[in-house]
Amino acid sequence: MRVLLVTGDEGLKERLLDILRKKGYKAACVDSCEKALEHLFEYDSDLIIFDPDVKELEGTDVLPVIKKIQSNTPVIVVSDNSTHEADVKVAKAGVYFRLGKAFDDQIINQLLTIVEKNQQG
Question: Taking the model in full, what pTM does it have?
Answer without folding.
Answer: 0.89
